[in-house]
Amino acid sequence: MAPSDHPPLGGQDSFFTHVETGDTGSTTESEFEVDENEESPWGGAHLPTRDRRRDPGPARSFQASASIQGRQFAEQCDTLLTHLGFTLKGRKVIREVGVEIDQEAVSPKGQVVWFEYKGSVQGTRPGLRRTDTLKKAIANGALLRSLPTPAPYVVVTSHLPEAGSGAAMLRAAMDIRCFADVVCLYDPTSTARLKNW
């Protein structure tokens, strides 16, 4: 059966267009006609243009929020050091070992100290409780120890590891003197040790 011999889909009342060819070769076309004025049960024939503007979503991503918290924590650390009489020199890159120090400061006694800030106020593992953060601080400390005359390297954190592998890593790092000290910003007993420099 040739394609033209097929009956129109859906029978004679089909709304599909069906083209028939007569003996003369001419074609006749029958279509389902739509009355645009007739009200459809699904709404009007002309729908409003779709608004393609997307919802901007949360104002800040997780990464942006973490960056803001990091800056806020650094400001708190700087405030504490200033209160204790340190003179802040700003960030310092130790190019010999590829380590960037968050704050180089001079104590009231004239001792240069390199400070690393590791802290935040949100998240399930803030500060040095996050093992990859702790490992980075340990690596920096080990690299700085390779210098001929490194300044004391002190880590100021919001949270110390309490137990498990994090606590074990911190103890080992202190034993091999990767850090001159690790200070919890929110523990007055801990921050009091900064007066020793």
Beta-strand content estimate: 15-25%
Spatial separation of the terminal alpha carbons: 100 Å
Q: So what's the overall shape?
A: globular
CATH architecture of the domain at 65-196: 3-Layer(aba) Sandwich
Query: Which structural class do you get from the secondary structure elements?
Result: alpha/beta
- DSSP helix count? 4
Strand order of the largest sheet: 3-4-5-6-7
Number of strands: 7
Rounded to the nearest angstrom, the radius of gyration is 36 Å
CATH topology of the domain at 65-196: Trna Endonuclease, Chain: A, domain 1
In short:
The chain has 197 residues and is of the alpha/beta class. The protein has helices at residues 62-83, 131-145, 164-175, 188-191, and strands at 18-21, 27-30, 87-94, 99-106, 112-118, 153-157, 181-184.
Could you explain the architecture of this structure?
The protein is α/β, with parallel strands linked by helices. The protein has a domain at 65-196: Trna Endonuclease, Chain: A, domain 1. The chain is built from 4 helices and 7 strands; from the N terminus they run ββαβββαβαβα. The protein has helices spanning 62-83, 131-145, 164-175, 188-191; strands at residues 18-21, 27-30, 87-94, 99-106, 112-118, 153-157, 181-184. It has a 5-stranded mixed sheet. Strands 1-2 form a two-stranded antiparallel sheet. Helix 2 packs parallel to helix 3 (164-175). The protein is globular and about 50 Å long. The protein starts with 17 loop residues before the first strand and ends in a 6-residue tail after the last helix.
